# Entry
Amino acid sequence: MKLNITKQAPNVDEFMLLRSKVGWINPESIIAQESLDNSTFHVCVYAGSQLVGFGRIVGDGSMYFYLQDVVVDPIYQEQGIGNLIMQEIEQFLEKNARSGATIALLAACGKEKFYSKFGYSDRTGNPLGLGMCKFVE
# Structure
């Protein structure tokens, strides 16, 4: 399988299709587009013309970097695509995250071990707390 990696935002429709393939709920298209437009970094993996993997960084690009939407089409999982995405993200972070920056993510349930391979650790509650989130409906 020949893969093509780009560092540009995907088309909003293919982005939303990929998210839906893993069961994630999508916002309205205009909101998804604004979110993509406001991201700090993108990495897309294509098999032919089909988006099969994606990841991005959001944040202020200086102190805070959050990994977001790291996703691989279920048909293409377990083939190293997630690792390719993370390698591109980590290269970007090596060049752009300076001393004192925070790099964070919210792992999907059961994916913590995957991210630990790249140096991410669980927040156990000490000393930083467990982390929290809030969803707007």
The radius of gyration is 15 Å. The domain at 3-116 is CATH 3.40.630.30 (Aminopeptidase).
